[in-house]
């Protein structure tokens, strides 16, 4: 959350809110309003399920994935009725491959 708050200050981004809470506890106030849901350290199937009620119709979910997680992402997304609409690969300082994978709900 600190990284996201710092990014908001430096870019700057308007109408952005960082919530450092469990998704289950913020459903009512954000239901159907989130344009982007970002999380880390959560299984992709759980993330997509928790994000669905929060997302606006054009909302996206961004998941940080390991190489293995990235390869499983299409199957998990399809099972949750999402599709992959973007991906950005990068490497950690130790050289480990990672990806930011962007998902959109299927209509």
How does this structure look, described?
The chain is α+β, with helices and mostly antiparallel strands and 107 residues long. It contains four helices and four strands; from the N terminus they run ααβαβαββ. Strands 1-2-4-3 form a four-stranded mixed sheet, with helices on one face. α3 links the parallel β1 and β2. It is globular. The protein starts with a helix and ends with a strand. The relative contact order is 0.15. The model has no long low-confidence stretch (mean pLDDT 88).
**Helical residue percent band:** 25-40%
Q: Please state the average pLDDT score.
A: 88
Number of strands: 4
Strand order of the largest sheet: 1-2-4-3
Q: What class would the helix/strand composition place it in?
A: alpha+beta
Q: Extract low-pLDDT stretches.
A: none
Write the layout of secondary structure elements.
Elements: H1 2-10, H2 27-30, E1 34-39, H3 44-51, E2 55-66, H4 67-79, E3 82-91, E4 97-105
Parallel strand pairs: 1-2
Antiparallel strand pairs: 2-4, 3-4
Briefly say what this structure is.
Helices cover 32% and strands 35% of the residues. It has four helices and four strands, in the order ααβαβαββ.
């Amino acid at each position: 959350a600190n990284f996201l708050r710092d990014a908001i200050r430096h870019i700057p981004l308007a109408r952005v809110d960082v919530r450092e809470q469990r998704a289950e506890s913020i459903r009512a106030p954000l239901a159907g309003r989130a344009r982007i849901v970002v999380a880390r350290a959560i299984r992709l199937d759980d993330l997509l399920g928790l994000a669905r009620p929060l997302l606006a119709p054009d909302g996206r979910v961004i998941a940080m994935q390991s190489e293995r997680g990235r390869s499983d992402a299409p199957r998990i997304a399809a099972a949750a009725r999402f599709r992959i609409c973007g991906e950005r690969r990068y490497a950690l300082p130790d050289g480990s491959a990672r990806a930011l994978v962007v998902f959109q709900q299927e209509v």
